[in-house]
Amino acid sequence: MMKGALFTGVVILFKFPLKAFVSSYRKAEIEMSCDEGSPEPPVLKVFNRWLLFEAVSRADRRALDGLLQYLQSHEKRLIDEEFKEPSTGKTCLPKALLNLHNGHNDTIPVLLDIAEQTGNLREFINTPFRDVYYRGQTALHIAIERRCKQYVELLVEKGADVHAQARGRFFQPREEGGYFYFGELPLSLAACTNQPDMVHYLTENSHKAADLRRQDSRGNTVLHALVHIADNTRDNTRFVTKMYDLLLIKCAKPYPDCNLENVLNNDGMSPLMMAAKLGKIGVFQHIIRREIKDEEARHLSRKFKDWAYGPVYSNLYDLSSLDTCGEEVSVLEILLYDMLYRLCPQNRHEMLAVEPINELLRAKWQKFAAVTFYISVFSYLVTMIIFTLVAYYRPSVGTVSTVDSFSIYYLLTNPLCFHSFIYSVLVLVSAALYLSGIEAYVSVMVFALALGWMNTLYFTRGLKLTGTYSIMIQKILIKDLFRFLLVYVLFMIGYASALVSLLTICPDKKTCNDSCPKYPECRDTNTFSEFLLDLFKLTIGIGELDDMLKGAQYPVVFLILLVTYIILTFVLLLNMLIALMGETVGQVSKESKQIWKLQWATTILDIERSFPVCLRKSFRVGEMVTVGKGLDGKPDKRWCFRVDEVKWSHWNQNLGIINEDPGQKDHYEQTQGGRGLRRGW
């Protein structure tokens, strides 16, 4: 080996000049010394959306080393499209918040620092989802939903929009195809997910406090959202009512001129009206019975203790929005007339039993509705008797005369329901035909006469004993009889078509004299309608099979079809109808008290709505009471309704009592009468 190396060196020496060899050696030595003294050139990591999302999903902050240098060197930002999810527009920040490990993700502060150094921090934090399903959702919404207060504080400090609105389909009500409607706003989300600490921070932070008066795209405030998520369960009602009061009182302090409970949404609904419309009985009862004893927020109360003596309490309930006397839509009208309740009236009677609604209706009945109702019954019966006499003693022959006509009297009828509306139209048509001298008025008049007497069932609502019968008849007609008739008419038309086809055709009248055969011996153009009537007679058991078999071409087939028709209709369908009607009567009987209460309440409001506004105000139930002082120091006067109660479980607790002297001495001296107590043990 040594000999080979020496030989090679000798060859090189002889091959190159010595001077050139020394020069190249020195140059190589200088270059080597320069390389040893200088650092290695930096190697930049390349980032894309997949690597970025993978790093934040694993909460690996080391995987983000070099991200800032890469963005700065390539003049890119974290909100560029190449770093967003194509379908939703999601950036790496929501991705990190959706992948927390024990409530933390160490990549979140790193991402915020990088966004701040690249000059797009606010835009990065507030970048919303853009797809139809999650449109409008931001990182702040996700942090609140994940109940991570430290990240909510971090995002708000860095400039998060506290009024961003999540309007995607996922955030719509369930009846509209969504999953969880919370009012779109971050504050509403915190309230609807029962996070009072989060609510306090969002409304009190020094960076950007959330406005409690802010409304979403539906016009709903945070109170509307709370009412919407209520489900009448005990736990849900407890947290919703507690959060409701917290927000109501919190809004009154910075905005004393704004009562958040009076803000209307796009449908003209306040939170109380919405609770009545949606059947949220727990929230509804809490709102109308709310009693706040804190002096600073007492003006938000709707219930006031006027006086107390032992177990006896006299409570005053604010009637604003409950009973408006026609000036605006009232809660009572929503409970009784809203179409949503016509479709889903399960807990409507329970809401009418809530005080002061129950006692308010009773007071209306005693003050004006009972007398007006009985006068209406008497007037209607007199009208129908006169109508019946006119129809019975009308001239049956001769020319129609209008000299001594009673038709003008028909116009005095006052319709109170749909049947009476049809009845009134028929009466008017009959009167017009009579005055025109047209004999056809009789056919219209008899229909009006029948419907008029049927409409008398409306007045059975006034008595508990007979009030449920009209409901039974309505349910049987609409529910059971309609389904029966639908199937029965199909059967009858089908069998009539088949059986009439088996009858022989009648000969032409020209070929025979007066002895031409008719139905049932043969069929002609009028046979189908006559045969339908015969099939109906068979159904109710008064038909004659022998007469129907006379003109049959194939009597055996004809008879088989008739027998199967009788079995299907007379035996099966009729007995099924009887069974369904019995089931309906049983269901109505079980709920007879609640059904009558609804009818009774509807009757009271029907009578009240028939009055002009001036009369409504004169018949208004309640009294004007000074319940305290307003925020401006002036007396707080409200129209209230008094309910006296006896509660042996609560003794004289003089908190928030208006009058120190019990009873109504002034009222007693004026009326010389007392008022019975309502027992609520």
UniProtKB/TrEMBL annotation:
GO terms for molecular function: ATP binding; calcium channel activity; calmodulin binding; metal ion binding. ANK repeats lie at residues 135-167. The chain crosses the membrane at residues 371-394, 406-434, 440-460, 481-505, 556-580. It is a multi-pass membrane protein. The keyword Cytoplasm does not apply. It is found in: Cell membrane. Gene3D superfamilies: 1.10.287.70, Ankyrin repeat-containing domain. Residues 662-681 are annotated as: Disordered. GO terms for cellular component: cilium; plasma membrane. PROSITE patterns: ANK_REP_REGION, ANK_REPEAT. Its main location: membrane. InterPro entries: Ankyrin_rpt, Ankyrin_rpt-contain_sf, Ion_trans_dom, TRPV, TrpV1-4. It catalyses: Ca(2+)(in) = Ca(2+)(out). Residues 1-20 form the signal peptide. One of its GO terms (biological process) is actin filament organization. SMART domains: ANK. SUPFAM superfamilies: Ankyrin repeat. Keywords: ANK repeat, ATP-binding, Calcium, Calcium channel, Calcium transport, Calmodulin-binding, Cell membrane, Ion channel, Ion transport, Membrane, Metal-binding, Nucleotide-binding, Repeat, Signal, Transmembrane, Transmembrane helix, Transport. Residues 367-592 form the Ion transport domain. It holds the Pfam family Ank_2. The keyword Nucleotide-binding applies. This is Transient receptor potential cation channel, subfamily V, member 4. The lineage of its organism: Eukaryota, Metazoa, Chordata, Craniata, Vertebrata.
